Amino acid sequence: MSAASSTRPKAKGKVPKPPKAVIIAIAVVFFYALPLLHLPIISTPDSDFAGVLFTMAIYVIVALGLNVVVGYAGLLDLGYVGFYAVGAYTVAMLTSAHGSLPFLVVLPIAVVVAMISGVILGAPTLRVRGDYLAIVTLGFGEIIRLAATNSDWLGGARGVSKIPAPPSIPPNKADGTVTDPLFEIPHIKWDGIIPSIDDETKTRFLKFGVLDAAPYYWMALTVVLVVLIADVLIKNSRVGRAWEATREDEDAAEIMGVPTFRYKLLAFAMGAFVGGLAGALFATRQSFVNPQSFALLLSILFVAAVVVGGQGNRWGVIIGASLVVYLPERFREFADFRVLFFGLALMLLAIFRPEGILPAGRTRRAKAVEEELIAVEEGSDTDGAEAEVKPSA
Amino acid sequence: GSDDKDTASSGSDTSSSAECKPATIAFFGPKTGDAANLGLNIVGGVKVAVDKFNAEHPDCKVTTKDFDSQGDPEKATPLAAQVINDKSIIGVVGPTFSGESDATGPAFAEAGLVTVSSSATNPDLTTNGWKTFHRILGNDATQSPAAAKYIKDNLKSKKAFVVDDASEYGKGIADGVAKDLGDLVVGTDTVQVKQTDFGPTVTKIKASGADALWYGGYYAEAGLLAKQLRAAGWKGYFVSGDGSNDPGFVEAAGKAAAKDARLTCPCGAATPEFTADYEKANPGKKPGTYSAEGFDAATILLDGIGEGKSTRSDLLDYVNAYDKPGLTKQLKFDDKGEVAEVVIYAFKVDDAGEIVLDTEIK
Amino acid sequence: MQFFFDHFFELTITGLALGSIYALVALGYTMVYGVLQLINFAHSEVFMYGTFSVVWVFYLFGAGADQSTGSLIGLLVASMIVAMVVSGGVALLLERVAYRPLLKKNSPKLVALISAIGASFALAEAMGLRDRIAGFLGLEGTLTKYVAGARDNRSLPTTITPDPLFKIGDYNVTTVDLLVIVMALLMMFALDRFVRRSRLGRGMRAVAQDPSSAALMGVNSTRVYQVTFLLGGLMAGVAATLYMIRIGTTRFDAGFILGVKAFTAAVLGGIGNLRGALVGGLVLGVAENWGSAIIGTEWKDVVAFVLLVVILLFRPTGLLGESLGKARA
Amino acid sequence: MLLEVEDLSVNYGPIEAIRNINFTVEEGSVATLIGANGAGKSTTLKTISGLLKTRTGRVVFDGKDITNMAPYVRVKLGISQSPEGRGIFPGMTVRENLDMGAYVRTDRKTPAYQEDVDRALTLFPRLEERIDQIAGTMSGGEQQMLAIGRALMARPRLILLDEPSMGLAPKLIQQIFSIITEINNQGTTVLLVEQNAAQALKRADTAHVLSTGEITQSGTGAELAGDASIQEAYLGGAV
Amino acid sequence: MPELIKDTPSEAPAPTPGAPILEVDNVTLKFGGVTALDGVSFDIKQGEILGLIGPNGAGKTTCFNVMTGVYKPTSGEARFLGSSLAGRKRFEITRLGIARTFQNIRLFRTMTALENVMVGVDAHSTTGVLRALFRTPRQRKEQAYAEKRAHELLELVGIEHRAHEFAASLPYGDQRRLEIARALATEPKLLCLDEPAAGFNPAEKVKLLELIRKVRDSGYTVLVIEHDMRLVMGVTDRIVVLEFGRKIAEGTPAEIRDNPAVIAAYLGVEDDDDAA
Ligand SMILES: Nc1ncnc2c1ncn2[C@@H]1O[C@H](COP(=O)(O)OP(=O)(O)OP(=O)(O)O)[C@@H](O)[C@H]1O
Ligand SMILES: Nc1ncnc2c1ncn2[C@@H]1O[C@H](COP(=O)(O)OP(=O)(O)OP(=O)(O)O)[C@@H](O)[C@H]1O
Ligand SMILES: [Mg+2]
Ligand SMILES: [Mg+2]
Description:
The complex is a heteropentamer of chains A (393), B (362), C (329), D (239) and E (276). With 393 residues, chain A is mainly alpha-helical.
């Protein structure tokens, strides 16, 4: 949502700034602390919570990227996993299979390669109409997977292992000996409902090892925040409006001066960029990639995450993506029935919350209208330049 | 979930048997999802071993915890951390597949938690320098020469065709077979997992005039390929590896088409006693591929516990030094974690559609 | 290449047979897309239920390894009818449960796609867990044969051996090849006639183009949706029977890949276009076989998708273009 | 009374489009609704034809309560609508569109049916010229002709016309109003929504003024046409 | 990330008053058997209001479509400020300075009225992804301007009070007004209105007429297709009449009103009180 929020009158904006900043800060700190808290009920009892959180963060990144394509620009992409794979494989190729560049050097290469693959796929196919795009992209995702499976250079079905972790801070010695961390953060343990500090379990700050996923989670969460801020900024700008207009009526948008093809391509490229980023992070955490990790079903899961959350609403999409990872891990006891229940849940959500868990700006805009009316009565003025700074919800 | 299969004795049980302490071992592999079958076979074998152990050691009972990875490396990673963080676990049977072994190997190695796989056969797994990794069966690199030898010597093939399913397992083993068959190979082809129509492949095989076919892959596709080959009138030997060594092969191919197919396996046939024990421990189930290996893998860990190894490092050392006859073979590991003695058997499908032992490939 | 030329007819005819099955399944996608502009993701499961009903009919009549030709034909006819009923029923159920509540609310199309994906997962898993479900209902004992090996391949107890009929080039066309291709053509022809000629067919096209205007013309849209799903389901039932004759084995997730292929075929021919589904299916089937022969079987899906992209670049609405709504009568 | 609208209220979500509207239309008469943009005229027609659900009130057609009937059932009972924005089937030919108008009729093979087709084509010769053109490529006015012709094909007892003169050339507008009179003379009851209020009031037996969702004035066409406030508000002053 | 969207509006030469701003030169357009335009030539002069009238199906909308790049003419060409429009992309033509409304309303239905107009204003802004990401002062200025301008335009067409409603939920008449506001937002030199008064009652038409004059007076050139003779005669400076794709007359409103060919083809014989 762009205009409605950015023009939302000061009536609400007048709520003094500091408390809001504080709330946001507390939320951010809470999310960073999550893997240390071992909260009862919320934490996954049967799988390492920090690891699950990392996967959730990765899916959130993916979903935010896909939301640009599906939610904003209205292009149904059923092969998004392809970009995820391109990001992951670029890292695998350059750090392990055919090179030994450090992760931080490869990361930007990986996202650019993913973005280029988005442009290469988009340039010819975005002229294809509407739903035809769905199957073309689906094909693209499959081609990427099959190419990885059948090409020995890409590691074949066996995949690529020994992908290095991101550099720890301070760096480990060249021979692999682990140096002392800057500091260690103790975890919390629970005795019933009473928390206490657990001196035995500590996370070594910014030390990327195989045992503790928390540093990886922090890295992914930081990326989530960066992507999120970029998303807010772009969506609230002319670019966001152009996407929305293109989605609504391509011809009319064109005649209103929107170069629709370029904007669609831009959405594709940006989606691919973010997808590649997620893939790169995934590869370095997993230290191993193989084509099975990029199956068609994953693309479908991604689309489900976006739509179930509420396409076009970034918060909804975040919730959707988190649930898609979290629920099956939290409810491992359903074992065999997980997929069945997941399918039923998708169906029920679609039927009972067709707008998604958090609907896109729509209904909220209606509320914004009411606020506007109140504001008009009060005679308060809108100051666009000021109001736009605050991110919209 | 981590369902406790047996009633664990309360942790504070300080029994007089000073040596043996109650302990927990984990099974790590698929219990649900596409690959569940193989995992469940192993779980069944583990259960036989644990039941036997607990009957013999009433005062130091062993608990098992199952960790369902669905055979998916992505899911396996956090799950491995969970296993490692569970300080009660001192040994692992698994991981089941090579992919998940690849993804979790570094973590187990760093934690010093011993793993004994009864089914991951990717040869590269033992080259990573993980001290904790063990497997109790021949890897693909040992199975393929045996298979090639069988095709050459036992089946007396003059022209052989090699097909793989592009999977990690299937391609690895088929490449090995093709290499060892050398000049005998008149053609190769690659199909896909879950493919059901093999028209062009059948045409190629027929056209090549091959009298034997090696298929590297799993039973679902193997069965269909065998069936479509027979329907098209191909008369040669259908030979495949442990991935196809399952009654599902016969089900998919139909008895007529499956008849006389040859299946190699680094696994032994279940002995009648084991079958009986298995059916007792797992009512209504029959042992399958790698059930016996699951039993052996668990037995190694259990023997250690029985001898009073109660920490991860003790048990790791114990396993590294282990040398006893098992159900399937002499169980002893080299310094990389490969089982020292590899035995490969050939099975065949008889007229009744049963998979019966043909011969040991020497 | 030499191999391709030497076996041109064999590759082509088996490709056509494969493509015929794609085409029949593609019809289901095309019908629903044509009328509702929805990708009926769960159609693959409609097909899969059909394949199982064929197996079960064989079990039910206690078919064994060697069945006389007469009784085999009887069994096949019976199982085709049952498969059509079952697939049609599943399709109707889908319409009722997964789609109608959304159509009523006029939800965005993507939501319906998600509902369909959910339904697809649920239906496939229900089949894959049939032993467990039967267990809950206390029926496992009575249904053993039918629920055994729930997540594994299930085959017809009878092997259907194709008999060679006549030669084209140096390929012996078999009974099965011929049956599959002819059945597909017949079904397609009948369906095409129905949609073009019948009053309900016109109603379908009207709803496709403008649902509220169609309502103003007196078209009962609910009925139209039902018929659309039903027809797609019936065709999937036929496809399922032909598939079981050709392949003979199914499993709970057998629909997925076939569904993707069939959907590709539908798009290739021009989604929403019935004749397009036929053309798309046949082209895809043949292209896969030719691609396998020329480039290698591992690349056949890549060949299929690249073909799709190339065709869409030159014909952005598929080979025959036009949607069901726009097709001229 | 052919049509009775009692206490009708309709919402779009939270927005109240019409509130407690009451009016009746006598069999064989011409009734008209006039009002500014957004007054709720189209909403009223759509509710009568069943495209919108009522919040309160009922719609009675020929003595039957049709409030909860599906639109297609109402068509069978004899209500036909030429909707705002024309609503032609863009992918069908002109002829197919006309055929769709007669969807509920079972006499497609009879001369009576052919007569009706001929009547529509004589009314609008342009349609005859373009009988096989895809309707979506027709000009705005041509589509409007098609929409009216199509509504007539159902041989309705009550025809709802939503701004039939919109987009038509002056010469045709005059013709449209004669057509309305003519079909009314043939026995079809007409409920007309028009911005061309002068023309509409001239032809109407009864007329109602809608203003922000409520009926503010009713009377015969002539009465309202003579009302000063109405002239001021809806007929426009001199230019 | 490279600046993928960099679309600084192309600058067209500034128009001179009274000179032709748009020339339609011998344009013919055929659709299969139908000749929608048949050698049509006319021009629009800077600052005037030109009426384009003719019977239904005469080719008026088609003519618009040629001018705005939707259709490529079979032969002939349209020139804007002296440069040919042939081969130009539609959005480029808009940025050159031609804006239009649609006969069949085509708003961005799930965007609010305000946002619809802002999309139009954006046609001349230069914000790309990078500027948006870094919130450059320029971007903020443009954003603030777009909002302000959009509000002004909504005010101008009289639907400012519905600024935050979805386009789809506006009544028909207001949707038409929104179309005009959105077209104006692209800062056109030439504004083309396709039946702007359809769906208006006479009183509203009067207001529209005033609006069109106001628009012209603020410096726009206007081309209007309309069937309402009172409006056309009242507002236009000059009228071009098409019939069957051919130009049959051109002249001042008074000349056209009395042109027998136009009366026969288009106006018909009017009842006095029906001069609508
Ligand atoms: N789809 C919709 N969603 C929300 N509100 C709507 C919708 N359609 C109409 N409205 C609202 O309902 C009210 C009545 O609209 P309606 O279309 O009935 O007016 P009308 O009298 O036909 O106007 P016009 O002369 O412009 O056609 C208006 O205020 C309009 O904003
Ligand atoms: N794509 C097309 N294919 C065939 N004929 C077409 C196509 N587009 C337009 N036409 C025909 O061209 C003629 C001119 O149409 P146009 O829309 O320009 O008319 P118009 O003057 O705007 O009429 P109106 O006043 O009714 O809007 C019409 O007869 C129309 O049917
Ligand atoms: Mg209206
Ligand atoms: Mg027009």
